[in-house]
Amino acid sequence: MAFQATAQHTINIDATLNASEKTISIKQQITYKNSSEDTLKEIYFFDWANSFSSKTTPLGKRFSENYESAFHFEKDEDRGRTDIEKIYNNSAVPLQWQRGDAADILRIIPETPLLPGDSYTFNLEYIVKVPNDRFTRYGINNIEDYRLRYWFIAPAIYNGEWQVFSNKNTDDLYLPPSEFSIAIHLPKAYSVTSDFDVVSETISDKTKTTVLSGKDRTKAVLYFIKNSNFETIETDKLKVVTNIENSKVNPPVQALMIDRVVRFLDEKLGSYPFDKMVISQTDYKTNPVYGLNQLPSFISPFPDGFEYDMEQLKTITRHYIDNTLMLNPRNDFWLQDALQTYLMMEYVDTYYPKMKIIGNLSNWWVIRWAHAADLEFNDQYPILYLNMARNNIHQALTTPKDSLLKYNMNIATGYYGGSGLKYLSDYLGEDVLNESIHQFYIENKLKQIKSSDFEAFLSKRTDLPINWFFDDFADSRTTIDFKIKRVEKEGDSLKVLIKNNRKSELPVSLYGLNKDEIVYKTWTKPIDSVSSITIPAANIRKLALNYGGEIPEYNRRNNFKAVKGLLNKPIQFRLFQDVEDPNYAQAFFMPIFEYNLYDGVSAGLRLYNKTVLPKAVQYSLEPQFGFRSKTLVGRASVKYTQTMNEGNLYAMRYGFSGNYYSYDRGLFYKKFTPYITFAFRNPDLRDNEKQYIDLRSVNVYQDDDPNNPNQEPNYSVFNMRYVYSNPNLINYFRGVVDYEISSRFSKLSVNFEYRKLFLSNRQLDLRFFAGAFLFNDTRENEDFFSFALDRPTDYLFDYNYYGRSEDSGLFSQQLIMAEGGFKSQLEPAYANSWIATVNGSTNIWKWIYAYGDAGLVHNKARGTNAVFDSGIRLSLVADYFELYFPVYSSLGFEPGLPHYDEKVRFIITISPKTLLGLFTRRWY
Q1: What DSSP state is assigned to residue 471?
Q2: CA-to-CA distance for 29 and 693, rounded, in angstroms?
Q3: Distance (Å, whole) CA 454 – CA 325
Q4: What distance in Å separates the CA atoms of residue 497 and residue 826, rounded to the nearest whole number?
Q5: Integer CA distances (angstroms), 439 to 345, 443, 444, 666, 700, in order
Q6: What is the torsional sign of CA 264, 266, 272, 275?
Q7: Which of 203, 238, 436, 660 has the fewest Cβ atoms within 10 angstroms?
Q8: What is the spatial distance between Cα 739 and Cα 176, in angstroms, rounded to a whole number?
Q9: pLDDT tens, 839-872?
Q10: Residue 232 CA: distances (Å) to CA of 244, 321, 322
């Protein structure tokens, strides 16, 4: 399908800002030219301004999926929408039109089909309500400045099929290059800033009219600012209009940096086809340079000017590419992202070759010893990608943008793509890639293209095979992992057998080393399983694959083979966790501090092998001294995680753990647990649905309690658990089926949790628990193994109790939402036969909830008892920090009972690992 390089459509807009209503009245004329070979009976348009109109649009659902609640709780009048008044042709005849279920896509039917090569003019009159900028950073802010991105109705592309899709806050509106003419009427207090040329500007008593024009444009981003802080930087190539500021860099230096960036891009890509480019602080914050440069300026580890340079570089490069290379930004965007990151890496190599990933912190004596201090700034790109790959939630570069996890969309995909182009460049050698990118840009800017066009273009400029990059690197989520299988000495040569541990066909670099000196380097052909290569043996003491790190490899720890000497890699001990150094077998140690009521503060040393990125095999040894118990306590564990790239079964984890702590004053327990976990998920990683099967044997040995002669101190429990989890902001569901068996009892329980956030902002939390003993030979002695109504005994030592054996005082008021889930302490407190409870709560105002619990508790001697409680719940951070105030229960009106302060319950989480979930649920 051929496309025009010139403007395909003509878009004329007459827009009037009504500042008091926060609306824009628009009269628009679109002349649509059918450049396809098909007759079009209907034309599709983007109406993304209307994507803000309700909580149930694809945009509203996307906010909920990302746990971004501001849009859901916003007032209707601040969300934004499009009110269409009429759509007609040039003869003023009304046209049929409709919105689909998505609400932000228009289908308009011309009165006669549009033949190939013909044009048709649509006239539209509508009012756009501008949304608040807190949702996407675009819209109206609290000082009534306007930043407008998707504010007008725009024609979709037809290239054999309609390229039309909904707004999902992925910044990927796909418009053909069009010719714009825009007349804007607004209060004269505002100034207009845009990429377009200013044709005229007239001012009356209260109104300013600005006329803008632009050809071959795919965007029409406008800024209406009362006190504009945009400044124009004149370079030899184009004007850069920007309001990105940095108080540490004076204006002349800022201008020099912008000029350098523009010259760099002109050299690497080619000339920019427009005279002006607007670079705003909003653009940068929407797509920042992730890393330490996002720290507050007063603790920034980077030298003055570097951050400003990187901010301008990333934002200008993004505009440079997006405004000129017409790739489908939803389904074929990866090449744009990869080129942006690659050009940033090239820029840093050129102008900041010695810049470290942690900046000036690498010179601090307390950090200088760490491997992180040795890493170059560009090393951050493969590391941030590997964060996802090691957690097995990476996605192929070619994944559509709206199917990516937020972290992958914003960070990992572009960083992996840029690292991949570095990989390809090193493999091709002799600047082949840079020259190809430059020529490809010159020949294809402002044309509709696909990433496959770049592949075809590049393959003509080299004799080396490159299909592996597009097929096995870009179009697959298979990670990269090579290892040296064997080395054989053959005369004055070495025969090296290299194995590709993955189902892919990729080349790898092979280095010959003499201590730290590189004496030889070559590239292999693409390897799909095992391949041999023969190299000269002179002066080589060690062989290494990917020694320079030019390949974003999943595991570089198995890349070494000693030719002379005993160890492939030396052992290294480091204080505190560090970035992985593949040149060493690393072990770390660090001081740790914990607390429980009986051991008090326990301090010790943790010896472990986990780096910043997770590993398949992890061990941890944590001896501690309890200052209250005056005893050596602690834990140890080892686990192996096997990940799968394909299918629903994505991980299997095998492990063993052991604990030794106090469970009461002067009393200790030992717990040993071998376990295996099978983890399943939906292949669509944006779907939060996950399933787990846990098998474990919990073996507990306790000191005899002289005050409890009936206690069973030593026991073993085999536990099998199935967990189904599908958490979302709007609908949250989790279900657990749990089976336990030991020599004295066997029990089965189910636990279902459901949380619903309604369109009315009402939230309903429901939880159902039911459990029954299949047999129980422990009834006569105690309730240690019984089901608990409000405070489980935790005989498996799973819960993070701060005072697990307390029955009075503050620590007895800690609430663990397990088993019965009651908040009031009622009788009977335990069930030695069966139990069934329902827990519910609903919000009264914001984070204030009313809760209620009801249940049946059956004991063999007492029979069945019905119990209930109710009260007020303060959910300051749901599931992490909550307070429960009982009001009325089976005991009566509880605030009127003695010692009411002892009846208040609390949930509090201080575990960093658990709190990390607040971050990961938004990004992963």
Answers
A1: I
A2: 59
A3: 11
A4: 70
A5: 19, 6, 9, 77, 69
A6: positive
A7: 203
A8: 59
A9: 999 999 888 999 999 999 999 989 999 999 999 9
A10: 11, 21, 21
HSE toward the beta carbon, residue 298, CA cutoff 13 A: 0
Can you tell me the distance from the alpha carbon of 9 to that of 180, in angstroms, rounded to the nearest whole number? 9
Pairing assessment for the beta strands 763-776 and 787-788 based on DSSP bridges: unpaired
- Cα–Cα distance measured from residue 236 to residue 629, given in angstroms and rounded to the nearest whole number: 74
Q: Which residues pair with 198 in a beta bridge?
A: 212
Instruction: Name the strand (E) or helix (H) holding 264.
Output: helix 251-268
Integer Cα distance of 67 and 72 in angstroms: 10
Could you tell me how many residues make up the chain? Answer: 924
CA distances from 747 to 675, 777, 781, 799, 879 (A): 19, 12, 17, 19, 27
Mean of the per-residue pLDDT values of the chain: 91
CB-based contact 344:313 (threshold 8 Å)? yes
Do 638 and 621 contact (CB within 8 A), yes or no?
A: no
Cα–Cα nearest to 618, from 640, 643, 591: 640
pLDDT surpasses 90 at 97: yes
Q: How far apart are the first and last CA of the chain?
A: 38
Rounded Cα–Cα distance for residues 545 and 522 (Å): 10
Strand ordering across the sheet containing 231-234: 231-234, 239-242, 276-279
DSSP-derived pairing of the beta strands 667-681 and 649-664: antiparallel
Rg of the chain over all Cα atoms, to the nearest angstrom: 32
Q: What is the C-alpha to C-alpha distance for residues 166 and 103, in angstroms, rounded to an integer?
A: 8
The closest alpha carbon to 224, from 190, 259, 271, 275, belongs to 190
Distances (CA, A) of 787 to 405, 579, 746, 749, 754: 40, 45, 12, 10, 21
Q: Which two tokens stand for residue 36?
A: 């396809």
Specify whether the CB–CB gap between 732 and 754 falls below 8 A.
yes
Q: How far apart are CA 641 and CA 655, in angstroms?
A: 9
- Report the run of H or E that residue 439 belongs to, with start and end: helix 432-444
> CA geometry: angle at 791 spanning 790 and 795, to 5°?
140
- CB contact at 8 A, 485 and 530: yes
β-pairing verdict for 9-18 and 178-187: parallel
734, β-bridge pairs: 725, 753
**If you search the block for the tokens 């560090």, which residue do you land on?**
578
Helices 432-444 + 413-428 axis angle, to 10: 120
What tokens does 812 get? 């007895």
Amino acid at 788: A
180: Cβ contacts below 8 Å, ≥ 6 apart: 11, 12, 13, 196, 212, 213, 214, 215, 217, 220
The rounded distance, in Å, linking the Cα atoms of 811 and 802 is: 7
Are the C-beta atoms of residues 673 and 658 closer than 8 Å to each other? yes
In eight-state DSSP terms, residue 156 is P
Tokens found for residue 93:
């005849």
Cα 112 from Cα 90, distance rounded (Å): 13
What pLDDT, in 10s, does the model give residues 493-506? Answer: 999 999 999 999 99
CA proximity to 824, closest of 833, 815, 832: 815
The H-or-E segment that residue 764 falls in is strand 763-776
Cα 591 from Cα 740, distance rounded (Å) = 36
Q: Tell me the DSSP string of 62-91.
A: HHHHTT--HHHHS-GGGT-EEEEEEEE-TT
798-836: pLDDT as tens digits: 988 888 888 888 888 999 899 999 999 999 999 999 999
* DSSP letter assigned to residue 326: B
